[in-house]
């Protein structure tokens, strides 16, 4: 468990003062894969470094499993750091040492017995799938393999927390995916709490269960990944969500609206959760005298739950169309009518008949 | 008077003697000062304004004194350390003080070449300052350090030529006293050929070791 309590960090360069972190309050629960997302310069790198005290907070405290490391002496702190593994964007492996020696390094620093080191390194290399690369040097490996070595090195001393500093940002999408899968296994099999910082929403989407959004050193939003994706409250968060789940109305659809406004209307149906598993669209088409065309769709999966939106064209008599939409709303699905200018208005239960309220 | 082969061999031996002994002590001094220059600088693992602002100018001062001046200027110190101020052994003291600070700058450069990320990774896994220096910085900088040693060694060979001023002997001394002062072109030629060969061999060895360590 990691608790950030009113953590602030000020950097002073000359007479300039930069507030890298402003009053951050986050609790990362045991077993979480917690993601912190933000653009570069948002302060997320500084934040993750306050956990293992590569950066000391200017004020506030960071508690690791309930303990404040800033108050313990240097030597004890070094021992305590074995409980926190860290992996980096550029891997930071020793190029002069073999994969085996790189992974063994934290154990050598801990003055572990040679035979114990051997067992542990073999075991952990097996886990990350690099048993056959033990005698290779880092520059003989691909980016993904290097990060696997990084992960093995971080896991070697058996930590309870793993910090990931943009760990996949230097990797291609395919490799990113495999590294994220590995992190998931780390979380599940070793019960390690993982804190990830990234600027890629895709990373959050793929592995995290909880997420915090940072901007200008401040925490602007946090919650479960599902909630943040479903109901982003700030523009920044909405933009991050959009980078993974497109929700803008394509131009081709807007052109359609202009064509025929009388007999057909276009709606965006948003699925958050299990609802999208229901065949809402086909049920509606059967029940009402309307024809439904799916014009555009974007459904993805968040932690095993379908999530996304469909843009549908409902063709039929005015009254039938409104009844059909009313029915869809009753299924606990959010519906927005798409206007000719591409804007979307929420179709609200109470105010549905007669007028459309701006959402 | 022509120079004999025996004289040349003795001079070569004296040069190698002065170079190797002063390289050893100068190397130790240079590594020590080089580490200080790196780790006490601003933002590094043992940032220390006081130590840095003492070591840095001292290294500069020794580097700016021409070796021939240094040779003579520290005669009392030389006598204190080796008991005599003339001869091959006496030349070693100023050679050490000459090459040490020079080498410290080369060590400084080599260690600073190591990616900051390596230090960060070391700190993240709980390495102490000594562990960071000897388990992370030095292994990573080793190839570059080998080249630094090579450069320092060749610099030393040049400096030994002046050791003749205090009776140090060596190839440079032969070239000056027999060749230059007695107008023996052949002596100059032979000593220069030997020196060139020596430098070539040392540089080649340095390159071979460096490549082997870098595994290219």
TrEMBL record, chain A:
InterPro entries: AAA+_ATPase, ABC_transporter-like_ATP-bd, ABC_transporter-like_CS, ACT-like_dom_sf, MetN_ABC, MetN_ABC_transporter-like, NIL_domain, P-loop_NTPase. Keywords: Amino-acid transport, ATP-binding, Cell membrane, Membrane, Nucleotide-binding, Translocase, Transport. One of its GO terms (molecular function) is ATP binding. It holds the Pfam family ABC_tran. It comes from the Bacteria. CDD domains: ABC_MetN_methionine_transporter. Residues 2-241 form the ABC transporter domain. SUPFAM superfamilies: ACT-like, P-loop containing nucleoside triphosphate hydrolases. This is D-methionine transport system ATP-binding protein. It comes from Cytobacillus purgationiresistens.
UniProtKB/TrEMBL annotation, chain B:
Keywords: Cell membrane, Membrane, Transmembrane, Transmembrane helix, Transport. It is a multi-pass membrane protein. It is found in: Cell membrane. Pfam families: BPD_transp_1. CDD domains: TM_PBP2 (cd06261). It comes from the Bacteria. Its main location: membrane. InterPro entries: AA_ABC_Transporter_Permease, MetI-like, MetI-like_sf. Belongs to the binding-protein-dependent transport system permease family. This is D-methionine transport system permease protein.
């Amino acid at each position: 468990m990691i608790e950030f309590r009113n953590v602030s960090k000020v950097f002073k360069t000359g007479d300039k003062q930069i507030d890298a972190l402003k009053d951050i309050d986050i609790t990362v629960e045991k077993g979480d894969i917690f993601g912190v997302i933000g653009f570069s310069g948002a302060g997320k790198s500084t934040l993750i470094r306050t956990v293992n005290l590569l950066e000391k907070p200017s004020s506030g405290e960071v508690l690791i499993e309930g303990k404040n490391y800033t108050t313990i002496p240097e030597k004890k702190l070094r021992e305590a750091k074995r409980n926190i593994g860290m992996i980096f964007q550029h891997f930071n492996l020793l190029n002069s040492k073999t994969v085996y020696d790189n992974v063994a390094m934290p154990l050598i620093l801990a003055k572990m017995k040679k035979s114990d080191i051997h067992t542990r390194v073999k075991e952990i290399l097996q886990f990350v799938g690099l048993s056959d690369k033990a005698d290779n040097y880092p520059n003989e490996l691909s980016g993904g393999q290097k990060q696997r070595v990084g992960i093995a090195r971080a896991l070697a001393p058996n930590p309870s927390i793993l910090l990931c500093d943009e760990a996949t940002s230097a990797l291609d999408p395919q490799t990113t995916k495999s590294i994220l899968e590995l992190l998931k296994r780390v979380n599940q099999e070793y019960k390690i709490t993982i804190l990830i910082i990234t600027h890629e929403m895709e990373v959050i989407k793929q592995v995290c269960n909880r997420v915090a959004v940072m901007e200008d050193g401040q925490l602007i939003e946090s919650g479960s990944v599902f909630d943040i994706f479903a109901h982003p409250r700030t523009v920044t968060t909405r933009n991050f969500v959009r980078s993974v789940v497109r929700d803008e109305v394509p131009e081709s659809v807007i052109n359609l609206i202009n064509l025929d406004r009388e007999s057909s209307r276009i709606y965006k149906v948003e699925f958050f959760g299990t609802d999208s598993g229901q065949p809402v669209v086909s049920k509606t088409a059967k029940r009402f005298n309307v024809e439904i065309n799916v014009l555009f769709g974007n459904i993805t999966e968040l932690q095993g739950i379908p999530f996304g939106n469909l843009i549908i064209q409902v063709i039929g008599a005015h009254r039938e169309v409104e009844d059909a939409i009313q029915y869809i709303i009753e299924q606990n699905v959010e519906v927005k009518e798409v206007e000719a200018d591409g804007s979307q208005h929420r179709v609200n239960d109470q105010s549905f008949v007669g007028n459309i309220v701006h959402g | 008077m022509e120079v004999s082969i025996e004289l040349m061999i003795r001079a070569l031996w004296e040069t190698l003697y002065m170079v190797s002994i002063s390289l050893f002590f100068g190397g130790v001094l240079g590594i020590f000062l080089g580490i200080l220059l790196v780790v006490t600088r601003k933002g590094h693992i043992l940032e220390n304004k006081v130590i840095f602002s003492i070591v840095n100018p001292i290294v500069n001062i020794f580097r700016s004194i021409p070796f021939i001046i240094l040779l003579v200027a520290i005669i009392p110190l030389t006598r204190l350390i080796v008991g005599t101020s003339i001869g091959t052994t006496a030349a070693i003291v100023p050679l050490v003080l000459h090459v040490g600070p020079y080498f410290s700058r080369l060590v400084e450069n080599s260690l600073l070449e190591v990616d900051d990320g390596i230090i960060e990774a070391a700190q993240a896994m709980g390495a102490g300052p000594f562990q960071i220096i000897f388990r992370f910085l030095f292994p990573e900088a080793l190839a570059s350090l080998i080249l630094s040693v090579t450069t320092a060694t060749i610099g030393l060979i040049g400096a030994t030529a002046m050791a003749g001023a205090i009776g140090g002997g060596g190839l440079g001394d032969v070239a000056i006293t027999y060749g230059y002062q007695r107008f023996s072109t052949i002596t100059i030629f032979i000593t220069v050929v030997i020196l060139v060969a020596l430098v070539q061999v040392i540089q080649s060895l340095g390159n071979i070791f460096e490549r082997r360590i870098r595994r290219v």
